[in-house]
Amino acid sequence: MNDGLNLIVLIKQVPEIDKVKFDIEKGRIDRSSAKGVINPFDLNAIEAAVQIKEKIGGNIIAISMGPPQAISSLREAISRGVDKAILLSDNKFAGADTLATSYTLACAIKKIGKFDIIFCGEKTIDGDTGQVGAEVAEHLNIPHASYVSKIIEYNKENIIVLSEMGSYNYIIKLKFPCLISVTKDINVPRLPTFKDLMKARKAEIEIWDSNYLSDIADINKFGIEGSPTRVIKISMPKEEIGKCKIFKGEIDEIVSALVKELGVILKLW
Amino acid sequence: MVKNNDIFILSELIGEKIHPITYELLGKGRELANKLNTCLSSIILGYNIKELAKELIYYGSDKVYVYDHPLLKNLDILLYKHNIVKLILEEKPSIFLIGATPFGRSLGPRIAAALNTGLTADCIDLDIDEEGNLIQIRPAFSGNIIAYIKTSTRPQMCTIRYKTMKPAIKDIKRNGEIINKNVEILNNKNIEILEIIKAKEINISDADVIVSAGRGLKKPEDFSMIKELADLLGGMVGASRPLVDEGWISKEHQVGFSGNTVKPKLYIACGISGSPQHLFGMRDSEIIIAINIDPSAPIFRIANYGIIGDMYKIIPRLIEEIKRRLKSKNERNN
Predict the structure, then answer these.
(1) Interchain proximity A129–B141, CB inside 8 Å
(2) Across the interface, do A144 and B77 touch by the CB < 8 Å criterion?
């Protein structure tokens, strides 16, 4: 056993946002339209954990919940410095909202047992809620800090972080075990080397299903059954068309018409 | 869990003042309470806040639950959560609204998980269905789609995006009940706020005029031109996501789904094509002027005024002309 820190990183596989298409009729996204990648914010969470491990020693476990395809993202996490990866995958986990997702992740963390810090990204680019981290902390009854843009110092018992809370920044000391959700400003994730990629290709990814967690979990709280929120429909944002007045003519005419208009709008002249 | 059908909102403080998101929560909360013919209650936590409680009544609350204690001066997340959860379990409201500010986004999920109820993030509108359930409307996938969501548990909780709802209007003739609550203190040493530092005040959401640049900007130095125009008009500089991602300007200036939602009197979009993600953050501006070289750019579909042309030719001329006008105005006044 090592005597460094036991670190956990929560990651999610998301579709590439620029390529994904939506099936409006079925009210869901068309997952086949874009390949799955690690949620960009989670790369910063992985990097934050790796930097701590490099300095103080320890062990990093990445956990993800998702369909079997998400294995590729866990492999990528290993190539970026994670030691072990666990995929929570089961039909019973499917259709989970943030409450059920955070509950399932918290159960898996309890199953792992001892840990010091859980890292996650501030939000995912598909769900866009940013809620799962704080909900996991609540299920585990541990303190958390959100919007962490800087790790100030740490030892084997606690960590001091800078948490950006809008108009005020908080410097917070958290005793282990704790959860930290990080912003993109916290670091610049390194790219894996060829050697790292080769190692990750061969790495074993553990897959845990609902049965595996059933001794510590209430399985009715998993997936769609455990999810109080339901999407009843989706639509495309509305677009107003044709009210735009285009200024035409030579540049001097355009500028003079525009300045006149600005004067009216802002009561300048 | 419904005891009554009340609507609760969580008020937020910024320094010693009420954060303006609170007035938006009260505006929407009042509208829903009227629709459901029920009571609107506010929760306020802080230190020396008795006077602020009255304000919450003037802005539409029927009841205000006050938690006043020195330890509540700053956001101690566990202490706030503990007292709020206790109140919600006692009063059992049907709807509970929280601002989608860093404060609400950090605290809301803990409260929802403790109550084992659903939480819908970042709503831009709310409605009530025929059965009196809350319909929560929020964008997803970086503003590419709009989702309509219902919650089967109670309270129906959601966070509300800043600057998306109409703030309540103050009425000093309004009456309401102020309930001073006993603050329960935790002996929790797991989390400790060591220091609080005022962040740089760049709040683009509060600007009346915004001049924004997008991919049409060729290099970071050219922001000086955008800044000059913004300064002349008494405004602030905005930017679309690509420029922030490139590190040309800080995130506080970002307008769009993943940045700030803005509603200025005037929004000038320079070299911004108008992706759904950008339009989401500025479409409710009172007047939108778009300058873009591509006549098919989606920004023209929502703009009030458009100039099809090169921003590098137009903006310098525009600056020149505004300066000339301001100068002659000043001369006239002297």
Answers:
(1) no
(2) yes
